[in-house]
Amino acid sequence: MIEPSQLLPSLLSFLSTSDGSWSLCTIPFMAAFVAFFALYLVFCKERRSWMQLYVVAFSLFFAFKANGALMVLLPTTALLSWFLTPKMMRLRRGTPRRAGLWLVILIELLPLLYYKYTDFTLSIFNDLLKTNFALQHLFLPIGISFYTFQAISYTVDVYKERFPKTTGLVEYLFYLTFFPLLVAGPITRAGVLIPQISQPRPVSKELVDRGLWLIVCGLLKKGVIADYLAQYNNWIFSDPTAYSGFENVMGVLGYTLQIYSDFSGYSDLAIGIAALMGFELKDNFRFPYQSLNLTEFWHRWHISLSTWFRDYLYIPLGGNRRGNLRTYANSFIAMIVAGLWHGASGMFVVWGLLHGVGLVCHKFLNNHLLKRIPDNLAVRVISWSVTFGYVAFAWIFFRSPDIDTAFALIGNVCDDFTLADFHPFVMARPLWMLLLAVGLELHSIRESDYLWMQQRFVRFPWIVKFIVFAVVVQMVIHLSMDNVQPFVYTQF
């Protein structure tokens, strides 16, 4: 079990450094959150305004822990967005207000464009002109993509009069800096969070119990499955030619489960922590690897991002309202932009390109062929196999450091794959295989069965819930072996 003597030194270390190496799965963060939460409960009983200021202060400290001095970008973005959005709404309707909207969005985007895409743009410029101009390598502030997109969604929703322009400064700071969402989302709309800040409602026992369930699930996904699988996956993607084709396939399957467990685990932790604090947020994943086509996959994977692109890019481009060709083009553009959002790298563009082509092919076939095919078990098995295989194949380009590594891995699988390697692989890595099998099997359960398990957990006595939580934390500590992997999505 966790030694009590570890808590104070870990907490002091957590409070005194800002190197960006912390994780929600570590003892220092857990200790810091327990200390924060005790005072949070006191402020909630006294005055709501004190609670809001307290959460904003802790969130800014959290941002400092992640980014050091660059945390100043977060409150700066929040202040500019909050101040300029109502100013935009005072402009005359039509062209003046539309121009104001684009100006505010550009101001909100500038830090993201500078820190995330300057090096990438300069590298393209140097390749084209055969120059070697370069800036000092820029540190990408953690979470900048997520809070930038939240700021833009607020501005656009106010412009379209879907959300009032009267949000107070403290409430808006709370919304944009809310620490559970800061590192890797989920991207939360103003209409979901701000009303819960400004119009509090009693915290229900059911919400708190669901929050604890999500935290347990998040710790299992991230701290047990994702972190352990990552250690082998990193070897494969560092040098795929050093391993057999079968080992490469297992690395691809391992990363396919790792990125899901890592990111959905973080989302579970973020939504669960918010629930403990009395805020109800929307789910970000709905068993995406059960999808029977790519369109369904993007309705289930990273839902907050896919719906953001749908509402603020795909639909403004015309959506599916201007004929099939325009629909295909809009889907393709949205996926290319989604690839670039993940990172300033040609590999993310290739990943977005693959998903864009896949979506266009599915929409085209659905319009001309798929509707004629009967919906039976054999068709569903084939549909799932094609979809899962294509998604896993695309992850190769998402994870590989460069195109040569990706093609080396694919070539190695084509040239050197044999099932004879299965038995020695299992004998060499039994725990890794067990976690892979359990993770994939748990992902295959029906959503109704998952909700049943959640309800069973909610009905447990508090002592049982505490024991379950303690066992899970101990598993995380034991398997991490002081080698906790950073959350995959912190780099985006």
Give the helix proportion (percent range).
Answer: over 70%
Shape: globular
Q: Total helix count?
A: 21
For the biggest sheet, the summary is: none
| Strand-residue proportion | under 5%
> Overall pLDDT, averaged?
86
User: Low-confidence runs (pLDDT<50, min 5 residues)?
Assistant: none
> Which class best fits the helix and strand makeup?
mainly alpha
Terminal-residue CA separation: 34 Å
Number-wise, the strands total 0
Using only CA atoms, what is the Rg? Answer: 23 Å
Q: What is the H/E string?
A: HHHHHHHHHHHHHHHHHHHHH
Structure description:
Among the domains are: 62-198; 288-417, no CATH class. α10 crosses α19 and α11 (245-276) packs across α16. By secondary structure, the chain is an all-alpha fold. The model has no long low-confidence stretch (mean pLDDT 86). It has helices at residues 4-16, 27-46, 48-67, 73-89, 95-129, 144-159, 169-177, 179-182, 190-198, 205-238, 245-276, 294-300, 303-314, 324-342, 346-368, 377-399, 403-416, 422-428, 430-443, 447-459, 462-480.
Features:
492 residues; mainly alpha; 21 helices
